[in-house]
Each structure stands twice: as structure tokens, then as C-alpha cells.
Specification:
membrane; single chain; mainly beta; TonB-linked outer membrane protein, SusC/RagA family; 22-stranded antiparallel beta barrel; transport; globular; 16 helices; Plug_dom_sf; 12% helix
Length: 1064
């Protein structure tokens, strides 16, 4: 077998040499006429299909042909074709500039996988590519935000159950493992924070949605892959300087967005509770629990400290006060974000260069808080040996800093932070007003009053983040068609937190007083010295990635074209974090005091309550090692049939021994057929139609797990009987079979464009199957464990992506429409865990799913609703098919089957439609987004919390109060006591479930572009003035709820930006 392979290779090389002896070489470069950027993937042909070449990443091409006369043709989607007569041999290098074809909507034609760039027409998988123009459309310092509502299949999930799992591509592919897509930056995996990437440095973004596009990334690609390419210089290009600067104004948070009950009603509730002795336990609490101003007033009245008239006057004042007003006036402001960047790029005949610097400055919505970021990027490449050996180097550094000087206080909803004259007032959050006033002025104690207005700007908290990447690589042309690449990346990230609470801050004064001790002589001794308290934490991470790869490309006269790459990658990532606290810290000298962390000190206000001093220390670390082998191949027949195949095997220290030894590879295969190239489709008359299908597997993993036994070690300083005794807890037993989650993806669809270029689009349908999903399941207790975490569940996701585009007008007045629609329907197909009704009801507020076989991963459940009792206003449920007010039985006998299943808690249908209008240099872009097919549970009055002294929802005003009200309201009456079961039933009943469907005016962008071509007197090549408005409001929603379906706890903030972009 080896001899046959060697013979085949020898014959291939020998035939190439014979061909070269009888042919001459034609070389050149394909660029855009607009800005001179190369057009990788451009197709160059001589006499149709007899001799073919494809431009590389730099736009360069080379092809061989015998002597003779030919017709050369260059095509590139989104550009007008170029044709010329040429005679071979041709001894000059061609420089061909293609003009933009305004008829074509397929302007983005190259997909980047992170390993290679592929022309769109050769891709068999599913991807979306965003060019620099679309990436720059939205004004935001966060790169990922710019993908929202312009990327089919990608959605930003919102709501109480989202947590940090905000972004998903074609639904969620896991239950409890990592949910984030893999981020690739300049061909390497990126483990740093995405806010470290400056959007102005980005050239293009490719979103890989199926295994045929993403499986080459193996066990980390199950959630999709986002490939980010930053800007680079171009060969033979004069220096090009670009400047971008903008200011974005974001409205102040609306604290009155969520309806809240009237303060007069709330004070009346507190008075009612006081008269029923509800607060008596808190009064007698030895920990001196803080009580609201109204309750303190009523206590003073009861104890004869104030008169009834004075008490009533105070209570009336509370009814007219609102803490939110003071917070809005003193603590919040509009947010102001500034973003500035400057770059220069160019290149000589054998080298390229690019340098960019960026600066962002943001004033946060809380007074005194701000953050900034500096970014620097430098990239160079050189041809060390012409057309044989090249070397590239790149470096990126981001330094960000966040400063917090003010924390927003929390207190009674009607507390006042200042009197009518503006003098600061105290609030009482930890200890009662009566107690604090009783020890005021006591020798040895610090001032125990908490005055929030005096604390504004006092906190000294700084978070510093440093993120850096260094990349280098060599590319060697071994023989014609065969190249070898070796590349390396070093990445590092440091995160430093320094929080200094000054000695005069309430935080320090309260802590010092709490641990103040009474000695034998009645004197006071401080266990915590008076001085600043400094909390310091630092985490760092770094990784090394080394990759070696071979690429082979061969073109047989345009009939057969073969492209193969194969390589291996080794990756090592380590991270570590540490934290500590310093008491009695002197910021000027950098000194601190020694503190006793072992003794259990009694609290000054309650000697029976004993506790050690918090040392504030922690330590953790992680080691992540991967070794991977991969290969990808693509074959094209006569530019109309494409076959692709990829395979990858990953081994990692996270997997179990058996999984690493077996090492089932992750793979994909795809087929594409350009139907419009077939003779039997000649009726299409110049239109473009391609069918494609693919199937394959990618993977996912949970870095919190390991195939080996893991345990956490700790001390128990708070233990009453064995203080500071070390202990350990086993997190997970050894699992040699632990393996990566597998996501199988089947995808098929059509790409199309009309002959005139007026209409274009694509339609894809897909199915994803998640197997070996990681989660916790029960095991035989005889093993020593009740449950372990391992591979045990399966899911299925069906969906489609539709993209439509139209150029309605192409004259001096232009009108272009881009629409996309995505449908995602997921469900759990196998789960070995039995859920409870209570767990399913609470799942709406949890960031991780409570999976039920046959239902979506995130679902909304409720108790059946029977209305209100016309005589009492009590809520009516359903028990055994009959109306019932037996809340104990309704709640205790409820099963998952007896609950109402409403549907998915996340949108199943979503998309956007963007209209762009142009007239001369003026452009207007309007983006409307929509989300359908999901439910949410709106908030309402919580009587259990209300009758325990907590402010209630604004629905309280609409409650049932007398017979007949049940016709106009579905809000139950106020119960005589805090009935937890009655409240539990109502707050989880079907009456509070709403459809989340809505249409939103997402953003508007208005710009005017000045160019030197139109105004030769301009000192620059082009200048764009632009304005951008975001979060403009809901146009329509299915629910009658006053709140935004996606923003139930805080309002979406509108923003307005103005910017300037200049190219020299």
C-alpha cells in the first residue's frame, strides 16, 4: 500500500513537471476598485473551464497555460465580471480591479473557518459572514452586541432564566455544560473576555452554524463557532489611515419602570401588621434587626416617645415619599460612552503592515463610576523568499480599567436620603434606629449611622484587566500546490481587583463596631483595628498553542479541483486566582495590622452571637490541555459539484481514560450542487441556484469536570466546636468513561440569486441531535454517592433559516431590503431524572434548564386557573378536574403531568428586516426585529412577601375588594394573613402567563458620506458623518402587559450616538 502511495505521489509531481515544461505562467492580483483590498476566492479562467485559478488571501493568483490566444475572465460574487483578451506567454503581472455590482446582494463571499478561507460558492455547510461595513453599523464598544439582529440563527436570549447564557446559535445544544460558542480570533481559539476586542479592529466575522463548517474545531464547536478576523495590511498598497470617533448617550435607568404599589397603601399595610404584633419578634431580636421608618414611628408612639399627632405627621410624610426619586436624583445619570480609534495599513511588494490604537471612555449610569479601555494592534508579514517562504507576526494588547466610587443603597421604599433643605439623612439597614441612637456617642464606638449621600464617591474600587495575544507563523511552498504552515500563539490575561473601603466609610465603621469587645473592666477593645479595609484579588491565565499544517491544492484543467489540509494542534492553558484581605490598612504607607482569625468574637450588639473575623482569602486554579489531529478535504467537479469531508480527534485532561483511549473522532461531510450550471436548468437564464447538504458531529465539554476524582479543600473557621479544622469534600468521583458531548447536525438548503441580481437569498432546514449530554443523575447509594455528574441525556433541535434580499431601486435613489427568519424548536428526547411540579414551576427563573422528556429545554408551566371567588376574592384552582380552594392539596398533589404546559420560554421564531435607503451620499438604515412563539410569567402582587413587610407590586391597586370586582380583575383579594400556599398557587397560576410575541423598532442609522471623487478639494479620501439610535421601542406585542416581554425587571435603555469616520 505504501509503495502505491509513493508511486502515485511521484507520478503527480512528474506530470506537473512535464506540464510546466510546455506551459507558461500567468500571475496577477485581484483587488476591489473601491478601496484596493484583495478579493480572496476570485475565480480566474482562460477560455471558460480549460485553465482555472482561485485568488488566495492576498488576492494573488497563478495559472499555467500553453502558448496561444485566450479570453481571460475574472468573477467574484458581488462584483462585476471582468474580461480581456490575452496572449500567452504573458510576461507581466496582471493587476485587475473589479467594480462593485450594485445588483448583487451576495456581497460577502468568503467564509473563514479559522483554518482556511473558502469562497461561498464552494461551501457545503451553513455559515453567515459579516463584512466590516455590517459589523460597524451598530455603535457599541462590545463586539458581540454588533451581531444582534443581523445574523440569521443567532439570538440574544433575555429574561429571568437567562443568567450569563445570553447568546445561542440555532438553539441550545447542551443542558448543563458550557453554552457559549467557540470564539476564534485570527485563526486561534480565544479564551479571554470578549470586551477586550476592539470592534474597530475587526475586518470580518463568520458564524459557523453546522458541523460541515465547524466540526474541524472538534470537541469545542458544539455551540457554534464565531470566527473573527482582524484587519491586516495589503501588499503593494499605499499607507491608508483611518480614523473613527463617536459619542453614545444612553438614557438614565428608569427606576419607575416596574409597577410598585402606592406608598400610602404600603404604610397602611405596615400599620396593620404592627397592630397584629407581626413585628414584635423583630423588636425582641437580640441582633437588633433594622425596621422600617413607619414601624419605628409606631413603636415610638406605643412607648410614649412621641405624640399621636407627630406620629400621624410622620406617617403621612412616608406616604408621600419614594426612595426611587432620591436615587434618581442623587445616584443615577445618563451614561456617556466615547469610542476613538486610529489605524494605518499598507504594504510593499513583499511585505504588509498594520497598526491600530483605540481608546474608549465610558461614564457609567451610577455617579462616580467609569471605565476605560486602551487597545493596540500591530501586524506585519514578509516574503522571506519570493513566492516560497513568508513570515507573519502579530501582537494585540488590551488594557481596561473600571472604577467604582459609589454604591447604590437599598432600604425601605419610602426612605428619604435628604430633607427638604437637601441635608443628608441616615438610613438603617443592619441595625434598628432605636439601637443606633441608644449607643450614639458611647466612648470607644465609632459613629454607627449610615448616611448614603456622604458615601457618594467614597469607595475606592478598581478593576484592571490586561489581555494580550502574540502570534507568529511561517508559510512554506514546498512544491507546486503543496504548502506547509507552522503557527504559534501565546495568550495571557490578568485581572486585578482592588477594593479599599476608607476608615470613615459605613462598611468599615459597622464592621469595627460589630467586633468591638468589652473587657473585664468594662472598657472597649477593638478586634478589628480602625483603619481602611483593603480587599485584593488577582487572577491570571495564559495559554500556548502550537499548530502544524500541510495544505495541498491541485487543479486539473478546471474539471477537477482538489484541496486538502491536515495538521495537529497542541494547546496548554493554565489559570490561577488568589484573594486576600488587609485590616487596618494605611494607603499612604502600604501597611496593615495583624488580626486574630481564629477566635470567635461575640457581637457588640449581641454577645450570644459569636463569629470569627472573615480572612477574605481564597485560591483556585485550572489546567486545560488539548492535543488534536484534524484534516479537511474539498473536491470540486467542473465548478458545479462540491464534496467536502473533515475529521478531528481531540484528547484532553478533562476526559476520562477510556474516552481518550477510544477517541471517537468528530467528523462531517457535505455535498453541494450548483444546479444553475447544468444544461437541463438552462431556463434559469443566468440565475444562480445551488443545493447543498451536510451531516456531521461536533462536540462540547464542561471544564468544571474531570475524568479523575475531584475534591475541594477548605477550613471551617465558623465551626463552633472545631474551629479552623481543615476539611475536604468530594465534588465528583472518578469517571473513566467521561467524554465530550456530541452534537450531530444534518443541514440542507438552497442558495439562489436572480439573473438580474435584484433578488437573492437562501433557505436551510436542519436537525441537531445532542447525545452524551452531561448532567447529574442518581446512582446506587452503595457506591458511596447518591448522584454523579456524567454523560446521560439527549436532545433534538429542528429548525430553519430563511434569508431574503431585494434591490428595489438601483439609481441615484437606492432601496435595499434584507430579511431573515429563523425557527428553532428544541426538545429533550431522553432524560433519566424525574422532575417535580415545584421544580418545573421555578424553572422559569433559573438559568439552567429543568429538562422534561418531550418538552423544550426551557419551558413555562403553571397551575390551572379557575378565576376568583365572587364572595371572597380568593383565587380558585383546579383539583381532580373540579374548582377548588384547597391550596394545600393543589400544591402537594401537583405532578408534572397535572401542570399546564404553555410552551417554550425562549423565542422559537425570530428575525429582523432591515431597509436601507440611499440618495447620493446620504444613507438611511432602519432595522425592525421580531420574536414569536414563546411565553413568559409576568410579575404580580406577592401577598406572602407583602404581609411580611416587603413592598408589593402595582397590581395591588387592582385587587379584588368587593363582590363584582371579579368581573374586572383577576388579582386576588388581600388575605387576612400570609398564606404561603395561597400565594404560591396564585404567583404560579396560568392567569399570569403571557405570550412574549412582539415586533420592535430596534435601531436607525443615518449617515452622509463625502468622497474625494465627488469633491476633489477634500483633504481626505472619504469622510462619513453618522448618527445611530438604538432600542427605540416596541411596535406591537401580543401581551397586554405594560412591560416589555424581554425586559421584565428593568427597562431597555434608549441610546443616541453621533460619529465621524475619515479615511485618508
Amino acid at each position: 500500500m505504501n509503495k502505491k502511495l509513493l508511486l502515485f505521489a511521484w507520478l503527480t509531481v512528474w506530470s506537473g513537471m512535464l506540464w510546466a515544461q510546455s506551459s507558461s505562467l500567468l500571475q496577477g492580483k485581484i483587488t476591489s476598485s473601491e478601496d484596493g483590498t484583495p478579493l480572496p476566492g476570485a475565480l480566474i479562467t482562460l477560455d471558460t473551464d480549460r485553465h482555472i485559478a482561485i485568488a488566495d488571501e492576498e488576492g494573488n493568483f497563478a495559472l499555467e497555460a500553453p502558448a496561444g490566444d485566450y479570453r481571460l475572465k475574472v468573477t467574484y460574487l458581488g462584483m462585476k465580471p471582468y474580461e480581456m483578451e490575452i496572449s500567452m506567454p504573458y510576461d507581466k503581472d496582471l493587476l485587475i480591479s473589479l467594480e462593485s455590482d450594485q445588483r448583487s446582494l451576495q456581497e460577502v463571499t468568503v467564509m473563514s473557518t479559522g483554518y482556511q478561507d473558502l469562497p461561498a460558492e464552494r461551501v457545503t455547510g451553513s455559515f453567515v459572514s459579516l463584512d466590516q461595513k455590517l459589523v460597524s453599523r451598530r455603535v457599541s464598544t462590545n463586539l458581540i452586541d454588533r451581531l444582534e439582529d443581523v445574523t440569521p440563527g443567532l439570538i440574544f436570549n433575555r429574561g429571568p432564566s437567562v443568567g450569563n447564557n445570553q447568546l445561542s446559535i440555532r438553539g441550545r445544544s447542551t443542558l448543563f455544560a458550557n453554552t457559549e460558542p467557540l470564539i476564534i480570533v485570527d485563526n486561534f481559539p480565544y479564551d479571554g473576555p470578549l470586551e477586550s476586542i476592539n470592534p474597530n479592529d475587526v475586518e470580518s466575522i463568520s458564524v459557523l452554524k453546522v458541523a460541515a463548517a465547524a466540526s474541524i474545531w472538534g470537541a469545542r464547536a458544539g455551540n457554534g463557532v464565531i470566527v473573527i478576523n482582524t484587519r491586516s495590511g495589503r501588499k503593494s498598497t499605499a499607507p491608508r489611515v483611518s480614523l473613527n470617533s463617536n459619542v453614545n448617550l444612553v438614557q438614565s435607568p428608569d427606576l419607575f419602570y416596574v409597577p410598585q404599589m402606592n406608598m400610602g397603601d404600603f404604610v397602611d399595610i405596615e400599620r396593620q401588621l404592627f397592630e397584629s404584633n407581626f413585628y414584635r419578634g423583630s423588636e425582641l431580636n437580640p441582633n437588633r434587626a433594622a425596621l422600617s421608618p413607619a414601624v419605628e414611628t409606631l413603636i415610638s408612639l406605643r412607648d410614649g416617645m412621641i405624640t399621636a399627632a407627630e406620629a400621624n405627621s410622620r406617617l403621612e410624610g412616608f406616604k408621600n415619599a419614594d426612595l426611587r426619586t432620591d436615587l434618581q436624583n442623587y445616584f443615577y445619570r445618563p451614561r456617556v460612552n466615547q469610542q476613538h480609534s486610529l489605524s494605518v495599513a499598507g504594504g510593499g511588494e513583499s511585505s504588509t503592515y498594520q497598526f491600530a490604537i483605540g481608546f474608549d471612555k465610558n461614564l457609567q449610569s451610577v455617579v462616580g463610576n467609569d471605565d476605560d479601555r486602551w487597545t493596540i494592534q500591530a501586524k506585519n508579514s514578509w516574503d522571506l523568499i519570493e513566492n516560497r517562504l513568508s513570515w507573519n507576526v502579530g501582537a494585540y494588547l488590551s488594557k481596561a480599567q473600571s472604577k467604582t466610587r459609589t454604591q447604590v443603597p437599598q432600604n425601605s421604599p419610602y426612605a428619604s436620603l435628604a430633607d427638604e433643605a437637601g441635608n443628608p439623612l441616615p438610613i438603617f439597614t443592619n441595625l434598628s434606629r432605636r439601637y443606633v441612637e441608644s449607643v450614639e456617642g458611647e466612648a470607644g464606638l465609632l459613629d454607627w449611622f449610615n448616611i448614603p449621600l456622604n458615601e457618594i464617591g467614597m469607595l475606592d474600587y478598581t478593576n484592571e484587566r490586561l489581555d494580550g495575544r502574540f502570534q507568529t507563523g511561517l508559510n512554506l511552498k514546498v512544491i507546486e500546490g503543496l504548502t506547509a504552515d507552522i503557527s504559534y500563539q501565546y495568550w495571557t490575561n490578568r485581572n486585578r481587583n482592588r477594593e479599599r473601603n476608607p476608615a470613615q466609610s459605613y462598611f468599615v465603621r459597622n464592621l469595627v463596631n460589630r467586633y468591638t469587645q468589652v473587657d473585664e473592666n468594662g472598657g472597649l477593645q477593638r478586634a478589628i483595628p480602625n483603619g481602611d479595609i483593603l480587599d485584593f484579588s488577582e487572577s491570571y491565565a495564559y495559554s500556548h498553542t502550537l499548530r502544524g499544517m500541510l495544505r495541498y491544492q491541485k487543479n486539473w484543467k478546471g474539471i477537477h479541483r482538489l484541496s486538502i489540509l491536515a495538521g495537529t494542534e497542541v494547546r496548554d492553558l493554565k489559570s490561577e486566582s488568589n484573594a486576600t484581605r488587609y485590616y487596618g490598612y494605611n494607603d499612604a504607607l502600604g501597611t496593615s495590622a495583624v488580626v486574630d482569625y481564629l477566635t470567635r468574637f461575640p457581637a457588640y450588639f449581641n454577645p450570644a452571637s459569636q463569629q470569627t473575623i472573615d480572612p477574605g482569602t481564597s485560591h483556585s486554579g485550572l489546567t486545560d490541555r488539548f492535543i488534536s489531529y484534524y484534516s479537511n478535504a474539498g473536491y470540486t467537479y467542473r465548478n458545479k459539484l462540491d464534496l467536502t469531508l473533515s475529521i478531528r480527534k481531540d484528547q484532553s485532561n478533562f476526559f476520562g481514560v477510556n474516552a481518550n483511549q477510544r477517541g471517537v473522532p468528530l467528523w462531517s461531510t457535505g455535498l453541494g450542487w450548483t444546479l444553475s450550471e447544468e444544461l437541463f436548468m438552462s431556463f434559469l437564464a443566468g440565475a444562480y441556484v445551488k443545493w447543498k447538504a451536510s451531516y456531521g458531529y461536533s462536540g462540547n465539554l464542561d471544564k468544571s469536570l474531570s475524568g479523575r476524582m475531584t475534591a475541594s479543600y477548605f477550613n471551617q473557621p465558623s465551626s463552633r466546636f472545631l474551629p479552623n479544622i481543615p476539611g475536604a469534600q468530594i465534588n465528583n468521583p472518578p469517571n473513566p468513561d467521561l467524554r465530550w458531548e456530541r452534537v450531530g447536525i444534518w443541514n440542507t438548503g438552497f442558495d439562489f440569486e436572480s439573473a438580474s441580481g435584484k433578488y437573492s437569498g437562501s433557505l436551510e432546514i436542519y436537525r441537531k441531535r445532542g447525545t452524551d449530554l452531561i448532567g447529574e443523575y442518581e446512582v446506587d447509594p452503595a457506591s458511596g454517592f447518591f448522584s454523579i455528574t456524567g454523560n446521560y441525556a439527549e436532545t433534538r433541535t429542528d429548525g430553519l433559516d430563511l434569508i431574503l434580499g431585494a434591490n428595489w431601486l438601483n439609481g441615484s435613489l437606492g432601496w435595499k431590503t434584507d430579511l431573515f427568519y429563523s425557527k428553532v424548536k428544541d426538545q429533550v428526547t431522553r432524560i433519566d431524572v424525574t422532575q417535580t411540579a415545584g421544580g418545573l414551576l421555578n424553572s422559569f427563573y433559573q438559568a439552567t434548564p429543568i429538562p422534561v422528556e418531550g418538552n423544550p429545554l426551557f419551558s413555562v408551566y403553571s397551575y390551572d386557573w379557575g378565576g376568583l371567588n365572587p364572595d371572597t376574592g380568593d383565587p380558585i384552582g383546579v383539583l381532580d378536574g373540579e374548582p377548588s380552594e384547597n391550596y394545600l392539596s393543589i400544591v402537594s398533589t401537583a405532578t408534572p403531568e397535572s401542570l399546564i404546559f404553555h410552551g417554550s420560554a425562549r423565542p422559537t421564531d425570530f428575525g429582523a428586516i432591515r431597509n436601507t435607503f440611499t440618495w447620493r451620499g446620504l444613507s438611511l438604515s432602519v432595522n425592525v426585529s421580531y420574536r414569536f412563539g414563546y411565553y413568559y410569567r409576568r410579575r404580580s402582587v406577592d401577598y406572602f412577601s407583602l404581609l411580611r413587610g416587603q413592598i408589593g407590586h402595582g397590581d395591588y391597586e387592582n385587587r379584588w375588594q368587593q363582590p363584582g370586582d371579579e368581573i374586572q380583575t383577576q388579582v386576588p383579594s388581600l388575605p387576612p394573613n400570609a398564606n404561603v400556599l395561597r400565594n404560591l398557587f396564585y404567583t404560579n397560576s396560568a392567569i399570569l402567563v403571557e405570550r412574549g410575541d412582539h415586533i420592535r423598532l430596534q435601531d436607525i442609522r443615518l449617515a452622509y458620506n463625502f468622497t474625494r471623487a465627488e469633491s476633489p478639494w477634500l483633504p481626505f479620501e472619504s469622510m462619513e458623518l453618522y448618527g445611530y439610535a438604538n432600542n427605540l421601542g416596541i411596535i406591537w406585542k401580543a401581551s397586554k402587559d405594560k412591560l416589555d416581554p424581554d425586559f421584565q425587571t428593568s427597562a431597555p435603555l434608549r441610546s443616541m450616538a453621533l460619529g465621524l469616520r475619515i479615511n485618508f
